[in-house]
Amino acid sequence: MHRLIAFLMALTLTMPILLVAQKAPSDDALYDDVRRKLASDADVRGGALDVQVKDGVVTLQGRVRTEKGRQKATTLTKKIKGVKGVENKLKLYSEK
Prior knowledge:
Layout: H1 2-21, H2 27-39, E1 48-54, E2 57-64, H3 67-78, E3 85-92
Parallel strand pairs: 2-3
Antiparallel strand pairs: 1-2
């Protein structure tokens, strides 16, 4: 019985720490992560990209060279921990 009480007390004390550790990254941190990830990819980098983040939703705007680059930008962004959604408004340089 004493072990159970001790375990429950320890769990109660560590729960707030666990919840803080799982807190979603800030929009600023997500912005930095997205910019870094896109800049390091050969299919996406070199594009004129504008990244905006609001409440974990990333909006990508600007131009990329290929359709593969446009699609890959979405895929890479979705893989970043904390990103809740991606709105891809990227256009190709060849589009008007």
